[in-house]
Fold these 3 entries.
Entry 1:
Amino acid sequence: MNFAKKLLWFLVAALGAVGLALIATARGEPINAVWLVVASACIYMIGYRFYSRWVASRVLGLDDSRATPAERLEDGRDFVPTNKWVLFGHHFSAIAGPGPLVGPILAAQFGYLPGTLWIVLGGVLGGAIQDFVILFASVRRDGKSLGQMAKEEISGVAGVVALIAVLSILTIIIAVVGLVVVNALKASPWGLFTIAMTIPIAFLMGIYMRYIRVGRAMEASVLGVVLVMAAVVGGKFIGESHTLAPLFTFSAIGLAWMLVLYGFAAAVIPVWLLLAPRGALSTFVKLGTILLLAVGILAARPTMLMPPLTRFIDGTGPIFAGKIFPFCFITIACGALSGFHALISSGTTPKMLSKETQARMIGYGSMLMESFVAVMAMVAACVLKPGIYFAVNSPAGVVGQLPEKAVATISNWGSTFSVTTQDMSELARNVGELTLYNRTGGAPSLALGMAHIFSGSLGGSLVMGIWYHFAIMFEALFILTILDAGTRVGRFLLQDFLGQFWKPLGRVTWYPGVILTSGIMVAAWGYFLFQGVLDPLGGINSLWPLFGISNQLLAAIALCVATTVLIKMEKGHFSVVTMGPLVWLVSATMTASFQKIWAPDPALGFLAHARYLVNQIASGAIAADKIAETQRLIFNDRLDAMVTLAFASLVLVILIESGRNWWLYASGKKRVVLYEAPVELSKLPA
Amino acid sequence: MHVEQKLRLGLKNFLWWLQEVFGDAEYEKYLRRASAEYRRAQPHGNCEHHCGPGTVSRQQFYLDRIERQYARVSRCC
């Protein structure tokens, strides 16, 4: 490295340090969001340039003379050597979903500092490393999946745990993101109209790509975006129409039923009609909006009104209960360290990598980009007045059903949180909503933040409603893509599993089997969705931690596989690279699991909440007509405790299995067998 | 190179990138590959209209591609 480059990197480091010092030490005086963006960008650049490079060369020993599976097994279908920038786009759009947007919004209840530090440091040292090493491991094994690698490199038990983890996370994630959509669209005719219109728009795009211009997804997406934007603008008139608005106004229960029906239909109808066009549209909108958000933040340079730390670091938060450790690290998974990414890194991406060294840019770089999206989501949440943020995100069961009660409760938390009913009414009117109270789930507050940023640099408050509903459409589109694609993948996994017991169930063309397995999958996530919808505490308090724990269960499997691979490659002395994030993650996941099950505080512990409700019934505090509903809540609490216990037990199983193997290798009692594909020299140009 | 030329080139590259990410040119790539394979196997054959028994129509190729894509985890949270 020459002097000029050294100087440049020194300046990047210095700028990052100044930014970090500013955001970490600001007390009492609001800081500009640009500092958050600058500090994060500098840390990402340094992490990418130095840490990932060291891991690539010293730890993994990436070797471009070695042919990748895309070259060796090229078939023009799955295995295709792909341009690195194109593969970066593919991989990034596959890993970036609603998670990095919603998680930081919820974690903002602690203030912006804990979440931002976790996003940036967790991303650089944990999440990006996990994605990178798993991608590398899969490339060296002909693109094998995480489950296959766990089975071969650790043990058969680990493979079974991986399959259970994948099915569990699919179920929980669909339920929780479904809940986010329901809470964003309830009593919102403008929002519901816009989202409803994306279905016929997807059909049109599907017909275009199937019959008119076959396979031209980009052209169809441009057409789709134009129509969706027309729907966003047109939704304003629907929302204001006394005749049409009631047709698009539904309660949370009604919307939950619609989602269930939609998920079932999406899993059984031809993929070309809905899933493929919606996926393309979602990718297009996602890339555009993320770019727009980055430009918007730099153009508007908004001030962060949320303090760096709030009083809720003590665990008494209204959005979800629990202290910073472990709940900040469970709440923000995607954006910092997400096990789900390991499925993508061991899915299509390793089959398309032209050269081994590109794994660094694709695996590590894409994750940093997603982490940056999470920082921007944090900015969007924290530019709102804290009182407004909490009024939107707090459930009625915590702050009160009536607006006057809600603002009084929130304002009583201190001057930082002061909010009035006028503030809330004016904001709701500006964005074309009837009310913004108790909109738990994060999507509405993210949309408000984005609308604030966009309207600050483009259009002013006059178009705030358009931007708000554009942001809601953007999030719901993401979420429905997960919901429909996830239900279908779950159906395939179930068919694969059940087909081992009765062959016809495994046939993907046998309609009764398709209907049955789709029904099971939808019933599973639908149950948790309704649980969240009916929960007086808003559902997020119970479901989001379940999602975080299941996601980190998958991350534990991925990091155990990664560590095992390093040990088998005789790189055990570098295993701290994967073992460090694993130790942190297991500490957070196990602590969170323990607290969610056994904490004595009813707001936090599932069993304590069940006991509290049992005592309420016994003391006669529950009205007779509410007893059946309360008993269902008690059952749900106990079910959630069981599910959490199951996840924590699976983490322990995978740790014990991995630890046993590591000890056997270290003591020489077990022969090391590395299941890498045979080495073949690459003929592709560098 | 003038700024205008640079911008035009940048835009062209960006559009190419978008098309590749969306897989719009996948079928053409598939045909090129099939054609190359056919030429390797039959150096004197004509691959203008027929590139061997494995070649499928554009529509079939598209349907196969999206069926495979949506049968596995292809989207994260």
Entry 2:
Amino acid sequence: MSKKFLHAVLLLLPAAQAQDARQIVAESQKRAQSQSQQYEGTLEVIGSANKVSIKHWIFDRFGSFGSSKAILRFAAPPEVKGVALLIVNHPDRASDQWMWIPSLERDRRVSVQDRSTRFFGTDFSFEDLEERDVNQFDYRLLGEETVDGQPCWKIESKPKESKSSQYTSVVLVIRQDIYLAIQIENYTKDKLIRRIHYSDIQQSDSIWTGRTVEVFDATRNSRTVLKLEKLRYNIPLKDADFTIEALRRG
Amino acid sequence: MANAPLARALLPLLLSTCAAQDFQQRGFLETSATIYPQAAPNDSGHIIGESLLRYEASYKVRPWLRLSGAIDASFDTHHQVERSLHLDWQDRSLRRPALSAREFKVTISRGKFTAELGKQFIRWGKADILNPTDRFAPKDFLTVTDAGFLPITAARLIYDTGADSLDLVWQPRFTPSRTPLLNERWTVLPDSITGIPLRDLGSEFPGRSSFGARWNHIGAGYEFSASFFDGFNSLPLFRGSSSGSAESVDVQRFYPALRLYGADAAIPLHWFTVKTEAAYYTSPDKQQDEYVIYVIQFERQIKELSIVAGYAGDAVTSHTPTLQFSPELGFARAILAHAQYTIDSNRSVAMDLAVRQNGQGSWLRSTYSQTFGQHWRATIGVAWIRGDPADFLGQYHRNSYGILAVRYSF
């Protein structure tokens, strides 16, 4: 092998790896793609003192990834029952979000400058509720390792300049057999902020899904466990069900 | 068909399951004690106990048809709440009804159209600190600094495409804002009539209906609305006259015609969201001032701290000498702010502030709130009011208070 050829290979290697990593994430996104999604979520928020609070919400999504719309309605505890959030995602900018608060009898546009804010006392931040579009990040394959007994790819993603994010990098762990992301570690300047782990992997309407989502907030040492129940994909939802008016009328 | 009896037997079960899924209910029972350290000239009471039971239910009869209802049952120790137990629909009484229909409406939605008929809440505007365009939202001002909204009886039609919505409202019957009672501390009487008994002759209500229209547009990185209202001001003017014996003064409320042109906008910027709202109040019957009220507020969420702060201003374009109860003008020409910090999933602290620009009136309220389990919440707070007796806020300088409230939600 000539020295020139080796030099060319070394130069091309990072680009090839980036391509591979991007292709893996794109395939993962493609396999998770659905026209709509609906589930009932049970959340256990476990604070640093092991104090547990339980919440329930109903989640509906229409469309997918960059241009999806979602409505999340709290069903319990009684105090927040009826509170709802409308998220309108855009492929080229931060999502628009409105909150319906029954006690105020009005919708409120939610400011999204600091999307690191926790969502209603859970360990999800507002940004974690947004869907990530593959085109908004750059990727690098870190290697392969076994996680939860399954061979996985470990991929680092960094937001492009145009994408504003609280995280400077994200490490995705994607199962090689089904192209499903089973762990997402979110970092800000090399410091772990949140780890999202998916377990209880099942196929629903031909889409592999982690039915249990555990979010660990490393800064607060607290965690939230979300269990997805009555999960359905590609159900006949309408665009008209994802407007401010639809948010209000319930 | 062999399975027909079985199907007939299972049908009620199936229907009841569907009904359970489409039926929603919630409510709470809240009991509070408000402590006023100072007595007022017309009100020597120091402690007020209040209880409110609210029950709300809705039932989706068909995917396009929903029935909603809510009832409030109230009681207090200060006679701000009526003692008779009839179910009040009108919300026109001077005192708060003991039993009132808070909401009773039918919602019909077909594609981009939604129609709502009955007793309902209609809220317009985007600002949080003051809403000058919010014309179908009368308030209960029995405690001026802590006013709740009153429902109205109306027919509403909304066409919403997602990016644009048109909201048309027709209110056949007028609902007034509830003003402070003359013999209680949130009515501050002029020195000139101190000691003269007042006879409350009630209210003279307008007979005509009100109408309003609002168009809202959501663009890329902004949202704005334009609105129009033609009807009556829910805030009253007062007509005073000496009674025959001249030993007392008769007071009656009446409601001037109001035509309003409004606009509001929200613009999320990199560091904060700007929300602004303005309305031009005109008086077709020339019975009240004509003026503009405008609000500009800045909003920012920093981790668990939410801050909303801004300025509300006014400009009177035509003055008519009247005696008017107008908290909207009273909270204008002021810096207004709200901040809330979420300590954890169970605890939060909040602060509200209003400071008149001339420094003659200020109001500061801070509260601490904590939940216990899935149903209970306790709130403790203090409100501090200072200022000049000639100022709208300052006149309530004797009404600083402490409050303790316990709520059970279900």
Entry 3:
Amino acid sequence: MQSEDLFKEMAQSITDGEAEKAAELAKQAVAQGIDPLEAINKGFVAGVNYVGDQFSCGNMFLPELVMAGEAMKAAVAVLEPELTKRGTERKMLGKVVLCTVEGDIHEIGKTLVGTMLSATGFQVYDMGVDVPVMKVVEKAREVSADIIAMSALLTTTMVHQKDVIEALEDVGMRAKVKVMVGGAPVTQEWVKQIGADGYSEDAIGAARVAKQLLGV
Amino acid sequence: MTGKIKSITNPKLSLQILTPEEIQRLHTVSLDIIETTGIRFPSKRALDLWEAHGAQVDRSTSIVKVPGQIIEDALKLAPPKYDLAARKPEQDLPLDGNHVFLGTDGCGVEVLDINTGKRRMSTWQDVADIARVADALEEIAFHWVAVSAQDLPPKTRGLNELRAIWENSTKHAQTESIYKEWEARVAVEMAITIAGGRDALRKRPVLSIMQCTAPPLGQDGGSVDAALIGAEAGLPVGFMTMAACLTTAPATLAGTLAVGNAEVISATALIQLAFPGAPVFYAAAQTASDLRTGAYTGGGPEDFLFGAAQNKLSDFYNIPLSMGSFATGAKEPNWHAGVENSLSTFMASLVMSDMLLGVGLLHGSRIWSYSQMLMDCEIFSIIQKVMEGIVVDDETLALDVIRNVGPGGNFLSQKHTLKHMREIFIPQFMDRRPYNVWEEKHDDGCDWALEKARKILNTHQPEPLDPAVAAELKIIIASAESEL
């Protein structure tokens, strides 16, 4: 197949949310010796952009966005070893350490934010749920995170968002990392009170806020 | 303000929403889910109980797979009828299938201030104030913790919220904000103090406990442990599913009902295995996630259908239901709120859901509004009136009166009219004044509702707790705070 046709098919696999198809096309690109960065940028990303545009004008909906994000992830997973082999890497918008705070097991909103951030082009380190304060800080240090994003569904666990910010201050990392918070009980007032940098009520907004925070 | 409680009872209206075959199918699929896919119970006590009763338990994932027969047999042990007790016995609430009772919603995080109208973070005083207003309103039969006491330490917050309710109202308290084992132990101690002893509490449970499941197909370990503590003390406990189409449940309504049902009946069965015959209730507030944001919507046609379908399912299990109605997604008391709260509550009432949650919150149960609270009460009153239906007999047909008046007369001066006119509904918050009166003032039901709430808050004196009991509650909380 001509690479132009292959790129079109790649974009289509993202638009259709076909993860298996996307991975298959990525393998084909590797086999044909196509530059993996080109495959991503000219092929798959075109699909992501199309879905994003269709979403913005109300023709596509959240599940389609999520499936496109997952298809993108599947494609990149295939291409990543090839990128490493060639000594190149995909330019990401930034690194985000993501979690639901200690004592809280509510996962879905956090995971959705992770999908949206990945699809937007962030490197996401999802630590899961019920993550202790210091574990978050350590992970952020380990990966040199640009953003820490924390979710909480309970007013009693929401306080740990504040604890993480204080711990960042204690270890002298606060200036190096932006902090985003979310979850049903989180309000603008709470964000101000704990000195977080960003907040969004939904996952798509979260990706927008993350870009604003890093000026990308 | 006599402390009377209004309920929907002896309804003439009914609704056929699911056939017996469809209900049976939902049940069968739910059992299949529990038996083959399994439900997560991240609680050591729960896993031990399941194992002892023959379920297949995976300790590494906390997922249990339970044969359907065990679930069915356990559910049969649940009492079909019981009373929720109030501090004042005449305010007890019979959950007998022939009453629909209304509670406040919970648990919000912000309040539209009753004086300034400004939105701000909720405090302990708000919990107390809302309880006091609810105490005075005959439409409100029981309390949830309406908002979170965020000015108090998280550790004992849920306990202090309960104290706020008991200090300000004689009506039954159902908490949705106690979700840890030790917290439940302390809450039981407090309830024992109110009831006047452990046995007295068992006979007259002044507190009931509502726990949320963790959809899809999971439980919160702390919640399960807390429910077990409550059930051990004889407190009615219930599990609420908030499974939402698209995100935590399938996009389809039947699939969402099945997922939520599997969560609720598995947890309810566990309570029966641990404490056979313990009073339990079913609780549900399913919704559809928003297609654009994935957010909880708290309204829309899917909500209304869930509200009506759910009591058919809990009737199938023969246990009372606490149903999420009201709880609009609207940001302020407006058209959106009126449509959602009227329809969701009407549908849940048509099938005689035992408890309705609840009045007063906006923006998907996040922002408290006193205006909304009072207007929600009016919605309930309207629905109560509608549910009475139309009585057709000699007296109501009024043939003699019609003959007397004849063609061209009017009925205003008839004795029959005087006798029956007060059966006609008089709204408190609907504007039926002449146009020019409205034009002059430009006020509306929202303003009047707020005014009424202010008046209640300024004048209503709830029957106080015995000072010794009040002091004891504070001591119990203080000692819990220092122990931990």
